[in-house]
């Protein structure tokens, strides 16, 4: 079953590679219990098929970095990027994309979050295995308020501009 507007985020744990210790986080991969991390916050969450893939690196992540200040002004507390990659890959991609302090790059290494949301994408034929569909959602206090799922091969509704407009409407 696919997650819907009004549903809570799945009760799973993602991983985040941290380069500087702080707020109880040590250097290296740290667990991020999704429901606990989203509690009491407004999260702009976007998910994508994989780190370093062309659309993800050239458009998806850069768009959220570009709109960071506007998303914050619209009431977004944190921006999360979720991908079916391990924490080390997400950490390296975060460095390459310059996301520190703006976008949390969260690893869904075993696709547990993707499976729990029902938003998986089977890219086995392309040698990539089970991945996440491309989508974005606005989450308030752990509850999905908007959901924008892309059609296969598209990048039209999960972009930062779409989520920014929705955040402004909800704030």
Record keyword descriptors for this entry.
6 helices, seven-stranded mixed sheet, 171 residues, alpha+beta, two-stranded antiparallel sheet, Glutaredoxin
Judging from the principal axes of the Cα atoms, what is the shape? Answer: globular
Query: What is the helix/strand order?
Result: EEHEHHEHEHEEEEH
What is the assigned CATH homologous superfamily?
A: Glutaredoxin
Tell me the structural class: alpha+beta
Strand order of the largest sheet: 2-1-5-4-3-8-9
Count of individual beta strands: 9
Major pleated sheet = 7 strands, mixed
Q: How far do the termini sit from each other?
A: 29 Å
Low-confidence stretches: none
Number of domains: 1
- What is the mean predicted local confidence, pLDDT? 92
Q: What CATH architecture do you see? A: 3-Layer(aba) Sandwich
Number of helices: 6
Question: What features would you describe in this structure?
Answer:
It is an enzyme of class 1 (oxidoreductase). One of its GO terms (cellular component) is cytoplasm. It catalyses: a hydroperoxide + 2 glutathione = an alcohol + glutathione disulfide + H2O. InterPro entries: PRX5-like, Redoxin, Thioredoxin-like_sf, Thioredoxin_domain. With 171 residues, the protein is an alpha+beta fold. It has a single domain, classed as Glutaredoxin (3-Layer(aba) Sandwich), CATH 3.40.30. It is 30% helix and 30% strand. It contains 6 helices and 9 strands; from the N terminus they run E-E-H-E-H-H-E-H-E-H-E-E-E-E-H. The strands form 2 sheets. Strands 2-1-5-4-3-8-9 form a 7-stranded mixed beta sheet. A hairpin with a 5-residue loop joins strand 6 (120-123) and strand 7.
């Amino acid at each position: 079953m696919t997650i819907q507007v009004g549903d809570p985020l799945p009760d799973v744990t993602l991983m985040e590679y941290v380069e500087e210790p702080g707020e109880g986080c040590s250097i290296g991969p740290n667990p991020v219990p999704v429901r606990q991390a989203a509690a009491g916050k407004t999260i702009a969450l976007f998910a994508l098929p994989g780190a370093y893939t062309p659309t993800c690196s050239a458009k998806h992540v850069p768009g959220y970095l570009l709109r960071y200040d506007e998303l914050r002004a619209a009431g977004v507390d944190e921006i999360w990027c979720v991908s079916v990659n391990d924490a080390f890959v997400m950490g390296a991609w975060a460095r390459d994309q310059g996301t520190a302090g703006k976008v949390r790059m969260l690893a869904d290494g075993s696709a547990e979050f993707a499976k729990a949301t029902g938003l998986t994408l089977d890219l086995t034929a392309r040698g990539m295995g089970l991945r996440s569909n491309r989508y974005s959602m606005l989450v308030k206090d752990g509850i999905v308020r908007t959901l924008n799922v892309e059609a296969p091969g598209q990048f039209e509704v999960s972009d930062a501009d779409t989520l920014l407009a929705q955040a402004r409407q909800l704030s």
